[in-house]
Design goal:
Layout: H1 2-8, H2 10-31, H3 43-50
Length: about 70
């Protein structure tokens, strides 16, 4: 990245990294599948995923009253 910054400036580096981030985002949305819907996840793998204990209930704390 430093070579790109030295060659074209920080704005070009910013644009290139932003464009790569958008390409990554599009690829992620295109390729990602929820395990419950995926054909590539076996029943044993789904069972392993769902075997995790549920998240504990968190105690709700009241908002502090500012005076």
């Amino acid at each position: 990245m430093t070579e790109l910054t030295d060659l074209l400036g920080w704005r070009a580096a910013f644009v290139v990294l932003g464009a790569l981030g958008l390409v990554w985002l599009v690829a992620w949305f295109w390729l990602y599948e929820v395990p419950e819907w995926s054909r590539r996840v076996s029943a044993a793998e789904r069972a392993h995923i769902h075997r995790d204990p549920p998240a504990p209930e968190m105690e709700r704390l009241p908002w502090p009253r500012w005076r």
